[in-house]
Design a protein that fits this description.
Layout (H helix, E strand, L loop, with lengths): L3 E6 L3 H11 L6 E7 L2 H11 L3 E5 L1 E2 L2 E2 H7 L6 E6 L5 H7 L3 E4 L4 H17 L6 H11 L3 E6 L2 E6 L3 E7 L2 E6 L4 E4 L3 H8 L4 E5 L2 E4 L3 E5 L5 E4 L4 E3 L5 H10 L1
Parallel strand pairs: 1-2, 1-3, 3-6, 6-7
Antiparallel strand pairs: 4-5, 8-9, 10-11, 10-14, 11-12, 13-14, 15-16, 16-17
Length: about 250
């Protein structure tokens, strides 16, 4: 059997190295030909190396794995998604005949995934085209989330949330209809929950919906003007990363 040429795309160096170490046991049929740490570098490496298979993280620093798939023109490429969040989108992976790995990696699950991939290459089974996969993912990707409060929880469409602001161990959420809500969860909780919906942590106290940014103001170290007129400061540590994200919007 010809070796399967694979590319690892993950924004965490430790995660890439961990997966690389685990995959060494499968070098009889799997060759890791390179790595990438973002949507942009991933697209470049795919064009340069022409891999058969991607080990693709969902949450990347400059976007998502879904964004990357929309940018490449490689209908025959196979994809194994990697995610730290066991959410509804996993149904889409199964529906699209894709596989996925949950972080932290489980050796048995990795073995089952690699055996499945090996069989698909041996049998040359047809995989759904990338545009079909993206449609399936979009169909299953949850658009409403449950937001915990002190007296229960409420359901909201992610697109309605303009921004989230830390309030100690609580989080204040601001919605496009002008309403506010105080949640009993920390800002880190909402960062993990919302990052696949294009939310960006721009400050230790602020998480914003990229779709609701209207202007960048080069004042006081950098300020974002949101769709509701509010202004959100950008921390010095986050400034270069935030500007890079804004340039790609």
């Amino acid at each position: 059997m010809t070796q399967i040429r694979a590319l690892i795309i993950d924004d965490e160096k430790y995660a890439r190295q961990n997966l690389l170490d685990e995959l060494k046991a499968y070098d009889d049929f799997l060759e890791i030909i390179g790595e990438a740490n973002s949507v942009e570098s991933g697209v470049e490496r795919i064009a340069e190396l022409d891999p058969d298979l991607l080990f693709l993280d969902i949450n990347l620093g400059d976007g998502t794995g879904f964004d990357l798939l929309e940018k490449i023109d490689r209908q025959e490429i196979k994809v194994v998604f990697i995610t730290a969040y066991n959410q509804y989108a996993i149904k889409a992976f199964r529906f699209s005949a894709l596989d996925y790995l949950l972080k932290p990696l489980n050796q048995q699950e990795l073995s089952e995934t690699l055996n499945k991939i090996k069989m698909e290459f041996q049998q040359q089974q047809r995989r759904p085209l990338l545009n079909e996969i993206l449609r399936n993912i979009e169909g299953f990707r949850p658009k409403r989330i449950a937001i915990p409060a002190q007296d229960g929880f409420s359901l909201h469409d992610t697109s309605e949330i303009i921004r989230c602001q830390s309030d100690g161990n609580y989080t204040q959420l601001f919605f496009e209809n002008g309403q506010k809500m105080l949640s009993s969860k920390t800002l880190k909780y909402f960062q993990d929950l919302l990052q696949e919906y294009r939310f960006e942590r721009v400050h230790n106290s602020h998480l914003v919906n990229l779709q609701h940014i209207k202007r960048y103001l080069n004042q006081d170290g950098g300020v974002l003007q949101m769709s509701d007129g509010s202004q959100v400061p950008i921390s010095q540590r986050k400034k270069s990363q935030v500007l890079a994200v804004l340039e790609r919007l």
